[in-house]
Amino acid sequence: MARIAGVDLPNSKRIETALTYIYGIGSVLAKKIIEETQIDPSIRVKDLTDEQLNKLQKAVEKYPVEGELRSQVSQNIKRLISIGAYRGIRHRRGMPVRGQRTRTNARSRKGSRRTVGISRKK
Q: Which residues form a coiled coil (predicted)?
């Protein structure tokens, strides 16, 4: 099993797909890295040589991935919150940040519904 940037890549997948298991690498960046290292995109992870793995490791190190990227994202959110930006306030309140409607929907961000204001006489 190949290990790049602290992530075990699945052996049976093509390298093009397997690289996307690393946080911060999508399909476009994976294709760019493969083109840069001149590796056949259809090769399986289990068929990679040590030399090819080293090339991939060095190519991936150029980009912020995994822990480094996660910390950058959290620092950006903390900065928005501290300066009191609109987006920071939305993050603090746990509301959608990018302009989505909240009258209905937005359940994944707001959490489960809480009924308010119903009281019945006995």
A: none
